[in-house]
Structure formats: structure tokens, C-alpha cells
User: Which sequence fits this backbone?
């Protein structure tokens, strides 16, 4: 812990962080754009200016970027200082020079970081009355809208894209015509592209499908939920209006998804609104399908009492629905809807997850791992959020190098520059090439037989004893 | 806007010439990292082709293993990397402060009259492309401009006439 003084008041802070992060954590209002809790600082937007004083006698102080300055013990700063306030207001004024002021028709309206920061900085009147720069927008695929004129050049989009391993979005050109886009029109290739919608503090990247049947944030009815796209369980906030699901956004959970979810989770929900979705129990009589009310259902069920009835469940239905069906027909007449080998595999997973000796790491832990081996799983396709975490795990080497020469890990550009291509080990054992190969230290592509032998050998090596294959039941053998 | 575009690339990489490859390879030797050679490769290709086409961009991107969007970022960052065809002679005309004080505005109008092109344009006969630059570092001889690799100082209407006809007859 360190002590700093902000506008005459002493606070306890974590000296490993920067002044912006610590000020925000203390609940102090300090506008910012480019800093992101997951991606660190680059000092691109110049919005977080504060006054820093050398010591108690220093009356003049110097303007510094809070996000680029350590919250080191004894630091004395002022957020309220007039010059600092003035700078923040002018910075926003210049960032907004070519902004089209199209807030009434912008999808970001009402949940726009730029709106909030503009208000916070006190820049209420526009003075610029010259020609604005206008950009040509790109077609980026069915999910993401592009409206470059709203850009304030904070570089968050391209930094996130890089964080997620995407290669087809970059900053183009320079000064007043800096442009964030692809080299030409085309579908964004990253499976995490949807996060651009949330990462961009303005309305440059917006949710295209949502725009098509748009509602302001406050008109949506939302509830905390968990994504059903895969077994990771990312936390989400679905938003409904007039009986249809309109969009899904990330819901922060520090141990699981953090700030990001994958595109399947964000965009892959349309089946919920599907017209032929079964919403009520029904009974099929010949070719006729009859929808049943709750009471009808009960009497229909009673009608089968004492008869031999088979229940076919489904892994796509809820546990509760499967359980209800199973109790009705009895265990011996119930089929889970899973093939034998899959059912055996999930039984094994369940068993292992109950076994205290078997630690299943959280995403946060995966991100911090020194080395990772992935055995026979194409994570991008089966648990995309974990693939994103693995991309971060390989950066631990860079952080280690930075720490060894006292560069704070939030100094993102410096850490990357220092590490160049140095990465922590990530070893992929897979049947085919995967989307993580570009950051893997080794990708071994072979048959499942060979891969499982390697797996046993590794397990043996770790436990110090040779593990016999027979001890571990392999449902796929 | 065509909402049906699915392909991410429509242009195809051209084949780099042996000369281009030799020069790029030479640069690669000078850097710790192939990806650092992007700008040099763009300059090499431009030297040989006059400009950098989409096909050249894809070729360089492939050869150096740089994502095309990053390479485009480099190409568009530098104004003197030409992403459109330019004339046989490129006029880099300084319109910065000293030249402005010394009357470059009327020189610009003169070139405009004489060649029928303004900043950013190329003559129909593809002889000249007319571009502005911010300061050629020769302020005490203002107004100045460059044609190709040559610097021309203390410009006047007469000297401009002479320069233009000289470059026209050069082949
Ligand atoms: S597009 Fe959005 S995220 Fe990217 S630089 Fe502009 S404002 Fe920032
Ligand atoms: S948030 Fe500090 S410079 Fe952008
Ligand atoms: S201003 Fe023209 S050469 Fe410097």
C-alpha cells in the first residue's frame, strides 16, 4: 500500500497501479478514453490530465497523464486544478472537432462514454464552425456497423483487436484523417469482434442486428444471465423489448469472462425469437399438433399413469425440464438425448469436477498461467472465451521481463516493445490446425491415439509415476 | 453500400520481380525482424513500379508476413507512399509558412493554369502529378518545389515554365 494526496486529501492506493486506475477506484471523477482495465495504458487520448506536484512546496506542478503515471508513495496530485480541468476540456473539444453530433440517431446514445466524458469535462459549447473531416465507412459484416465520423482516435478498437489476436483491423493514415478499419470492406475475421461495440467509447462500432430493431438502453428490460453458447458460462445481460430478445452484452465477472465475451454468445441468440420455437407443451395426435395448457398437460400425464412411457430428454433443454421428465417416466425409461460416449464423457467430467484433487482453473487463473498445455481440444470452437484467455497467458513472459526492469505491467506499449516476440509456453496438441497456432510455442498435430499417449506421458512426468492407461478411463477408446 | 460482400480480399498478390526481392532481402538482413521492413519494401516497390497497387500491397504483406491491414496502416501513414498511380514526374510543392510568405500561392495558381491540375491531381498525359508538401527544409530559398529528385529554388513564373518544359522533354 502507498499513500497519495489528491486535492489535499490523503488516500491509500496500490502503488503497482497508475494514478487513473487508482483515482477511479477511489470513486473520483476523472475523464478518460484510451485506458482500459484489461489493456492498460498508452496515453493516446490525453484526456486524463492531472496536475502533479514534486513536493508540498511545489506550487506550480506539472501536467501529467494520470494513466501514464504510477500511483507511487507520496505522489501529490490535483484533479480539480484549473489548468488540468482546462486541458481536459480543450482535449475533448479537439477530439470532437469532426464529430457529427448525431447523438439523436446514434445507437450508442444513452450509454456513450463520449457523452458522459464530454459532460464531465464541462465542454458544453462547441466553437468550431469550419469544415469537418468525413470518412467513408466500411462494410464489416452482418454484425458490426461502422460509422467512422464518430471516432475520437483513442485507439481502443485496434488495441482490443490485437488483444484478441485479430489481424484484419488496424489504424490507417495519420493526423486528422486517422482511420480505424480493414484494408478494404469485408467481414471482420475475429471471433471476438463484437466486443468492439463495447470497447469503443463512441458509436463507431455498433451492434448491427440490434440497430435493425433498435431500442434505447433504458427501454430494454434486462436481467443478469449466463450465456448458453458453451460450457464456459460467461456472464451476460440480455435485453428484451415487446416480447423479443433484442441484444446481449457482456456482464462483468472477474473470475470468468471479465470484460469480454465471444461473438457466438453476443450474436448467436436469434433462435430465441424463432417463429417455430416450441414455447408450450403440445401433444401430437396423428398429424395434428395440439398445444396444451398447464392443466391439460397434467391430465394428459395422468392419463398415462401405469402405462409404459419412454421419456426422451435433451442436452439442449434445462436441467429442470430433463429432471421433471425423468421423474415422470422413471429413471429406467428415461433417455438423456446424449449418445453413450458423450454421456460417459460428461459423467467423467462431472466426477472429476467433484474430485477435490482435480483443480479446474478459472479463466482468471488461466490468464495468469506460466505455461499451458491444451490436450486435444479446439478451444476457439468449443470454449472461445478460454482461447482468448490463452492469448493473454502467453503474454506473461512479457510481463515478467517488464517487472524485472521495473516497467509497470500497465505500460502496455512499453511492455510489448520490450518483449517483441517473447512468449510464455503454450503447447497445443490437436487433430488439426487451430486458431491459436499463431501464439503457440508448439503445435503438435496428430491422431487422437498419439495425443492421448502424449497426455499420459505428461501426466506421468508430473506425478512422478508412470500412469497406466487402464487407470484412466477413456470414453473414446 | 453493398451489403453482400463476403470475401475479405478481392485483389490478388502480384509476383514481386527478382530485383524487388533482392532489394527487399537486403533490407531484411539489416533488421532484427522481417516485419520491420514494411516501409522499406513499400519504397522499393514504388521505386520500381512508380506506385504501390493493391496487388503489390498483398505481395509485400505475403513476403514479409505482415498482416495486410497493418501494412496498409504504414502505406497510408506516409504521404509519399503512393497508393494510386502518379504521373511520370511528381511535383512536390511546398505550401508551408516561409514559402507562403514568399508568394507560393500565386506559383501554385500558375502551375494550376499551366498544367490544368491542382493538388492531388495528375495531368491527362500522365506527365505530372501535383502534390503539396509541408516544408522542404529550404526555407531561405523560398518558394521551393521538388520535381522527381531535384529541388528547385526561388521559384518564379518564368523558372516554373522552364522547369516544366525541361521535364516534359526528358524521357
Ligand atoms: S473507432 Fe472508437 S475505439 Fe477506435 S479509435 Fe475511434 S473512438 Fe476509439
Ligand atoms: S486515458 Fe490517459 S491518455 Fe487516454
Ligand atoms: S516553408 Fe517551404 S521550404 Fe520551408
Assistant:
Amino acid at each position: 500500500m502507498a499513500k497519495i494526496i489528491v486535492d489535499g486529501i490523503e488516500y491509500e492506493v496500490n502503488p503497482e497501479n497508475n494514478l487513473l486506475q487508482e483515482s477511479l477506484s477511489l470513486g473520483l471523477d476523472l475523464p478518460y478514453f484510451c485506458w482500459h482495465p484489461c489493456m492498460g495504458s498508452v496515453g493516446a487520448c490525453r484526456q486524463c490530465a492531472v496536475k502533479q506536484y514534486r513536493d508540498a512546496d511545489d506550487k506550480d506542478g506539472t501536467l501529467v497523464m494520470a494513466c501514464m503515471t504510477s500511483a507511487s508513495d507520496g505522489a501529490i496530485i490535483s484533479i480539480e486544478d484549473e489548468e488540468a480541468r482546462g486541458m481536459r476540456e480543450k482535449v475533448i473539444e479537439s477530439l470532437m472537432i469532426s464529430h457529427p453530433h448525431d447523438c439523436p440517431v446514434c445507437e450508442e446514445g444513452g450509454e456513450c462514454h463520449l457523452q458522459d466524458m464530454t459532460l464531465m469535462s464541462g465542454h458544453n459549447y462547441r466553437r468550431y464552425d469550419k469544415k469537418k473531416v468525413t470518412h467513408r465507412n466500411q462494410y464489416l459484416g452482418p454484425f458490426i456497423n461502422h460509422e467512422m465520423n464518430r471516432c475520437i482516435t483513442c485507439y481502443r478498437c485496434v488495441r482490443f483487436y490485437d488483444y484478441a489476436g485479430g489481424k484484419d483491423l488496424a489504424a490507417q493514415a495519420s493526423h486528422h484523417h486517422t482511420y480505424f478499419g480493414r484494408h478494404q470492406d469485408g467481414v471482420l475475421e475475429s471471433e471476438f469482434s463484437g466486443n468492439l461495440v463495447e470497447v469503443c467509447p463512441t458509436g463507431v462500432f455498433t451492434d448491427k442486428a440490434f440497430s435493425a430493431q433498435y431500442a434505447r438502453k433504458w427501454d430494454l428490460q434486462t436481467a443478469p444471465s449466463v450465456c448458453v453458447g458453451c460450457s464456459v458460462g460467461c456472464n451476460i445481460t440480455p435485453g428484451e423489448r415487446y416480447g423479443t430478445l433484442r441484444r446481449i452484452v457482456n456482464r462483468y465477472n472477474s473470475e470468468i469472462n471479465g470484460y469480454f465475451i465471444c461473438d457466438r454468445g453476443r450474436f448467436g441468440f436469434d433462435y430465441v425469437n424463432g417463429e417455430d420455437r416450441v414455447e408450450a407443451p403440445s401433444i401430437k395426435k396423428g398429424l395434428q399438433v395440439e398445444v396444451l395448457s398447464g392443466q391439460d398437460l397434467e391430465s394428459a400425464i395422468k392419463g398415462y399413469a401405469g402405462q409404459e412411457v419412454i421419456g426422451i430428454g435433451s442436452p439442449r433443454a434445462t436441467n429442470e425440464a430433463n429432471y421433471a421428465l425423468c421423474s415422470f417416466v422413471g429413471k429406467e425409461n428415461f433417455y438423456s438425448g446424449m449418445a453413450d460416449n458423450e454421456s460417459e464423457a460428461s459423467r467423467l467430467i462431472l466426477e472429476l469436477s467433484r474430485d477435490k484433487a482435480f483443480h479446474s482453473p478459472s479463466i482468471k487463473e488461466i490468464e495468469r498461467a506460466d505455461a499451458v498445455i491444451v490436450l486435444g481440444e479446439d478451444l476457439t470452437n468449443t470454449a472461445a472465451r478460454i482461447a482468448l484467455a490463452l492469448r493473454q497467458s502467453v503474454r506473461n513472459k512479457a510481463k515478467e521481463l517488464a517487472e524485472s526492469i521495473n516497467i509497470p505491467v500497465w505500460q502496455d506499449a512499453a511492455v510489448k516493445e520490450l518483449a517483441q516476440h517473447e512468449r510464455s509456453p503454450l503447447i497445443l496438441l490437436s487433430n488439426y490446425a487451430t486458431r491459436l497456432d499463431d501464439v503457440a510455442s508448439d503445435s503438435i498435430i496428430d491422431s487422437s491415439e498419439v495425443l492421448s499417449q502424449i497426455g499420459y506421458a505428461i501426466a506421468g512426468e508430473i506425478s512422478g509415476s508412470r500412469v497406466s492407461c487402464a487407470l484412466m478411463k477413456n470414453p473414446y477408446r | 453500400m453493398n451489403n453482400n460482400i463476403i470475401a475479405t480480399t478481392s485483389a490478388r498478390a502480384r509476383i514481386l520481380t527478382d530485383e524487388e526481392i533482392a532489394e527487399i532481402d537486403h533490407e531484411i538482413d539489416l533488421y532484427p525482424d522481417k516485419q520491420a521492413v514494411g516501409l522499406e519494401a513499400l519504397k522499393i516497390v514504388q521505386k520500381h513500379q512508380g506506385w504501390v497497387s493493391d496487388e503489390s500491397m498483398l505481395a509485400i504483406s505475403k513476403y514479409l508476413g505482415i498482416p495486410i491491414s497493418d501494412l496498409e496502416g504504414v502505406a497510408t501513414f506516409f504521404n509519399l507512399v503512393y497508393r494510386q498511380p502518379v504521373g511520370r514526374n511528381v511535383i512536390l510543392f511546398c505550401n508551408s509558412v516561409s514559402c507562403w510568405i514568399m508568394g507560393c500561392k500565386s506559383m501554385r495558381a500558375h502551375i494550376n493554369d499551366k498544367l490544368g491540375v491542382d493538388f492531388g491531381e495528375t495531368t491527362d498525359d500522365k506527365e505530372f502529378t501535383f502534390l503539396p508538401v509541408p516544408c522542404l527544409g529550404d526555407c531561405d530559398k523560398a518558394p521551393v518545389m521538388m520535381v522527381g529528385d531535384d529541388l528547385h529554388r526561388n521559384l518564379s513564373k518564368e523558372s516554373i515554365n522552364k522547369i516544366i518544359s525541361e521535364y516534359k522533354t526528358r524521357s
Residues B 94, 96-99, 135-139, 142, 144 surround FE2/S2 (inorganic) cluster (ligand 3) (CB under 6 Å). Chain B has two domains: 3-77, 89-170. Chain B touches chain A at residues 1-3, 5-10, 33, 54, 57, 67-73, 76-77 (CB under 8 Å). The longest strand of chain B covers residues 89-94.
